[in-house]
């Protein structure tokens, strides 16, 4: 077990949703959404000592019931998933089932509903007060819409967690999505609900699926300003991404005054991810997770549910990024220069024939310009940020130029 420094600060009661049967969410050999992402993350987090902390409870989620799923999905869609799950030879492409992105497989309903169960369990623990922070790194299926699967996502667990919080008496929820892809499914489910703020920072739809998430997408007629989108140009790195985050997210969250934050931490924004075109490091992704946790501490009494999401560099990136997420949620951040435990590296070599990273970070220097130093119209990131600020800041009583 690796020694974790800095154990002097009080740590929040933290729940992690994890059980090996979550890896049944498996679209088959060669599909980017490899279940090894979850298994390797859990093994690394355990090797780092995170699962053994006294204030961390690791709980295996159950399969969400149909009535639970129907809080955000239609009964017809759940029935369609069940039908394809029972007979994968009869796909329903009109509902996104049995497509190239979401191939049909036996047991698909149960596997997807178990991931959803993880985020519902997280919401339950927040509501009953047994946890202040909760993590479901197997979740974050943010492309799934009310009536349709999409982009490797069958059931939208993050939306289910948000809805459960609302049904449990939470007045307002902020959903923050840092995946490289726009969180279109979650946004669509709460498009006209003024109780839910959806913020998504992602690669522009001009260069990446799903082709949505521009600054002028601001929410429905009863909820204008509650959909916030920062569509970053291809190639954006740590400095630009973090500048954009800090120029938009804290200000809008402060104005919205949520009681709980639910976040999606897809790590496909990494510079080595095979499906996207952003240029972040694990160091930058760790900073993003820390920033979201700080917002929960500042505005929500700490109450925070963090999910996983995309991320397709299965060995080098995902386990480190999500282990950092677990560590931050547990109040025991792992320093970036921490050596990756040798036992984990040996396991990766033996099972996958791959050489694992030596350090928990990418050894980069994180630096970004704060928005207070001024707007540069020649900078593509700044133009993106300003487009978002102009679209939504006035709707929250904020000045797009100065707040």
Automatic annotation (TrEMBL):
Protein's pathway: Ketone degradation; acetoin degradation
Domain Histone deacetylase: 31-327
Molecular-function GO terms, alphabetical: histone deacetylase activity
SUPFAM superfamilies in the cross-refs: Arginase/deacetylase
Matches recorded under Pfam families: Hist_deacetyl
GO biological process, one term: epigenetic regulation of gene expression
Family classification: Belongs to the histone deacetylase family.
Protein name: Acetoin utilization protein AcuC
Organism this protein belongs to: Pseudarthrobacter chlorophenolicus (strain ATCC 700700 / DSM 12829 / CIP 107037 / JCM 12360 / KCTC 9906 / NCIMB 13794 / A6)
């Amino acid at each position: 077990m690796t020694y974790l420094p800095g154990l002097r600060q009080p740590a929040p009661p933290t729940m992690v949703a994890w059980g090996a049967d979550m890896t049944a969410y498996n679209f088959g050999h060669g599909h980017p959404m490899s279940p090894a992402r979850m298994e390797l993350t859990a093994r690394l987090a355990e090797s780092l000592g995170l699962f053994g902390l006294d204030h961390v409870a690791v709980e295996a989620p159950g399969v969400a019931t149909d009535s639970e799923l129907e809080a955000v999905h239609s009964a017809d869609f759940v029935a369609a998933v069940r039908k394809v799950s029972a007979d994968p030879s009869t796909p329903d492409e009109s509902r996104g089932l049995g497509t190239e992105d979401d191939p049909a497989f036996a047991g698909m309903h149960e596997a997807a509903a178990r991931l959803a169960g993880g985020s519902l369990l997280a919401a339950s623990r927040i509501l009953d007060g047994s946890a202040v922070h909760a993590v479901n790194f197997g979740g974050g299926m943010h492309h799934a819409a009310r009536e349709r699967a999409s982009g490797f996502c069958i059931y939208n667990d993050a939306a289910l967690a948000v809805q459960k919080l609302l049904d449990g008496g939470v007045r307002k929820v902020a959903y923050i999505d840092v995946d490289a892809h726009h969180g279109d499914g979650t946004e669509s489910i709460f498009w006209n609900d003024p109780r839910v703020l959806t913020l998504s920072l992602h690669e522009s739809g001009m260069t990446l699926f799903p082709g949505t998430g521009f600054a002028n997408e601001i929410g429905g007629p009863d909820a204008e300003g509650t959909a916030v989108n920062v569509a970053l140009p291809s190639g954006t790195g740590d400095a630009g991404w973090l500048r954009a985050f800090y120029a938009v997210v804290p200000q809008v969250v402060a104005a919205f005054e949520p009681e709980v934050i639910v976040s999606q931490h897809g790590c496909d924004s990494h510079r080595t991810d095979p499906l996207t075109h952003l240029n972040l490091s694990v160091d930058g992704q760790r900073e993003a997770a820390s920033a979201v946790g700080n917002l929960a501490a500042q505005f929500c009494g700490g109450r925070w549910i963090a999910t996983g999401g995309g991320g397709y560099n299965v060995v080098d990136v995902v386990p480190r990024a999500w282990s950092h997420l677990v560590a931050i949620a547990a109040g025991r951040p792992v320093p970036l220069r921490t050596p990756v435990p040798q036992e984990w590296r040996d396991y990766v070599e033996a099972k996958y024939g791959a050489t694992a990273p030596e350090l928990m970070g990418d050894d980069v220097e994180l630096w970004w310009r704060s928005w207070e130093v001024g707007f540069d119209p020649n900078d593509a990131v700044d133009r993106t940020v300003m487009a978002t600020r102009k679209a939504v800041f006035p709707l929250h009583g904020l000045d797009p130029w100065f707040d």
